[in-house]
Amino acid sequence: MKNLWLSLALCLTFTAAFSQQQLKGKVVDQSTNSPLIGAAIWAEGTGRGTVTDTEGKFILARLPEGKLTVKASYLGYESVSQEITLPYADELVFSLESKDFLSEEFIVSATRASESTPTTFKTIDKSELAKRNLGQDIPILLNFTPSVVSHSDAGAGVGYTGLRIRGSDQTRINATINGIPLNDAESHGVFWVNMPDFASSVENVQIQRGVGTSTNGAATFGASLNFQTDTRRDEAYAEVNNGFGSFNTWRHTVKAGTGLLNNRFAVDARLSKITSDGFVDRAFSDLSSWFVSGGYYGEKSVIKLVAFSGKEQTYQSWWGLPEDKLENDRTWNYYTYDNETDNYQQDHYQLIYTGQVGSNWKTNLALHYTYGRGYYEQFREDDDFASYNLPDVTIGEEVIASSDIIRRRWLDNDFYGFVGSVNYISDNGKLDWIIGGGANRYDGGHFGEVIWARFAGNTNIRDRYYDNNAIKDDRNIYTKATYEISPGLNVFGDLQVRGINYSFEGVNDDQRVVNGQENYTFFNPKFGFSYEKGNRTYYASYAVANREPTRSDFTDNPITEVPRPERLNNIEAGVRARSGDFTYNANFYYMDYKDQLILTGQINNVGAYIRENVASSYRAGIELDGAYQLSPVWTLGGNIAFSQNKIAEFTEYIDDYSVEEFQQEIFTYTDTDIAFSPNVVGSAIIEFNPTKNLSVNWLSKYVGRQFLDNTSNENRSLDAFFTNDLRISYSAQPRYFKGLEVNLLINNIFNELYEPNGYTFSYFVPGGNGRELVTENFYYPQAGTNFLLGVSMKF
């Protein structure tokens, strides 16, 4: 009986094995017969699918015998289905006809660089972002791009995160979404925590280092990030992404799209939820977001409505970790009040039109509106009533001048306007000319409330102890052109005029009346050339950027001593090359700053630290990045940047509490390093693909020493660090799925103890020799070895 069952099982096994068939084929463009790379192939009713390789070829394995319908689709082409009978001995060829649709790429073309643009850039597409996206924020996903240093307050990449590019922080990095400004108009910052899981709705992002081709929004003083949101898909789809990781991190994302309806309309939507306890004690994040886009796609025009929103609640870990706790208590959090949280929601609405007029002209116009509101709540121990414009409390014969309180500090703002451009391309293709501009208004309310006091006295809940408002109008007009003066040689010019009107009035949080108005007009020219020879493009450019002070520079300084605007002169020169299996980019940059604003330790008349202009400073460096395919299964990639970042002359102010009457001691430094600007930043990625469905990546990151201030004092610095991550991805096409992918990311696999961000302050106190200098350093430690596991299902 056992032999009978064994024989039957073997027969069934061999029968099943022989009944499974393999289908080979190719997908090409109908008019040119060129291969279509990445075209989707689907065997209906089998759950089997794949995509074409670099030669447009595909293999579908484990298919059943008999009749079968196979479908091929590719963005911008009509889908084709063929009915075949397996076994099928020949190669199945799909010849797809292109659809006559206007490309959505023009939506971002006015802010983007192309191969002929003489600037330094890198574009990361959707597939590359998807490999890294397991719920962490945008700065963490961009960590392995050239000259980038990312950091996280909570230590695990979820919650408040940030990045620096070439040592410039987010307030100096211009960010746009579909060409629409993203930076906060007053602080110039971008708060990625307000946009959880935004990467899941990004088609691609271009990082331009230096001034680049930025036109809209805040001035670029270090780099720019240009995001394009999801473009149209021709086929209906649905995706579910779930993930889990260390520190009780969870991610849930659902995406769906209609595909192209009636050959003209498409709707896409996403819902996301991300939660994490954080590496730092109590530094939890509770994040949610949604994204919806709907469009009309005609032969000569696209009309698209894009709306997205993010809502966050995070427990504060802004204080950082004191130096004496670095060794033994890296998760320590200064805050203990149970609702010491930040709460904010930001809604974005964009109405975009792009159209083609005749054979030479294209137009683009976008209307936008952003509504943001929220607060952070704080417990304050024994605060003076005077700090809140409140009277002392009398209980019997006792006069109480201070109390424990809970306060909320609010932002309530509106940002709206339009951006637009017109593009002309000559018949011979030699001239590519754009003229455009934009006008945007920011209307922001700032106010604070006392919601509880241990000794309340004659007060009411939500009494506002400060209230002020600001209005900022930002207008610009520009023209830019690329002209091919001889085969392969292009010249580029870009002229922009930007005008700013900023007015503010009311009571500041330090109880000072801050009423003022400032107007600026900036002229920002850019010139350059590129030369294409064979598989190389050589380029060089000179660009100017001017930047107005931020809100705190106005409100913290005495109004009669407002800092001067900053100016940047930027030179970029480099080469981009592709040769077979080897691609590389090499560039030199020199960024010369005039009147750069930095913290010096000087305080205003109510004790707030202010920024001051330094006459001369610069950044100069060499950046190298490339990739080499060693074999069909091994690929090596990486980048490294070497730089010098200097201030010609810097004056430091140190508080002196060793004397009877408070004063500040002054120290002067020459040729000193700019804070948070490491001289070496590099990363490497080794990719191993033993099979078509399996990918193993080793990711390494090195960041050199960073100084916490501008004194080049190693006692006030962040140590260099070297981290290593391991990413394993496996994809399959099981029955009932168009795709199934599992991603495992092990971060900091060697448990490196490192801190990419921090701050410092020093002061004199009475000591044995009259006075003693005390320096307090605070750090933001990142998590040791941790993991994220994600499962993606596509239907």
Textual characterization of the structure:
This protein has about 800 residues and is mainly beta. It has three domains: about 80 residues, Carboxypeptidase-like, regulatory domain (Immunoglobulin-like), CATH 2.60.40.1120; about 120 residues, Ferric Hydroxamate Uptake Protein, Chain A, domain 1, CATH 2.170.130; about 550 residues, Beta Barrel (Maltoporin, Chain A), CATH 2.40.170. Helix content is about 5%, strand content about 60%. It has a 22-stranded antiparallel beta barrel. It is globular, with a radius of gyration of 29 Å. The two termini are about 45 Å apart.
Distinctive features:
60% strand; 22-stranded antiparallel beta barrel; Maltoporin, Chain A; 795 residues; Ferric Hydroxamate Uptake Protein, Chain A, domain 1; 5-stranded mixed beta sheet; 44 strands; mainly beta; Immunoglobulin-like
Summarize the structure.
This protein is mainly β and 795 residues long. The strands form 7 sheets. The protein has a 22-stranded antiparallel β-barrel. It has a 5-stranded mixed sheet with strand order 8-13-14-11-12. It is globular.
The CATH topology of the largest domain turns out to be Maltoporin, Chain A
* Helix/sheet category: mainly beta
Largest sheet: 22 strands, antiparallel, barrel
Residue share in helices? under 10%
* Secondary structure tally: strands: 44
Cα-based radius of gyration, to the nearest Å: 29 Å
Percent range for β-strand residues: over 45%
How far apart the termini lie comes to 44 Å
* Tally of domains: 3
- Average pLDDT score: 90
Low-confidence blocks of residues: 4-19
Overall CATH architecture of the largest domain: Beta Barrel
Overall morphology = globular
Fourth CATH level, the homologous superfamily of the largest domain:
TonB-dependent receptor, beta-barrel domain
Q: How many H/I helical runs?
A: 5
Highest-level CATH class of the largest domain: Mainly Beta
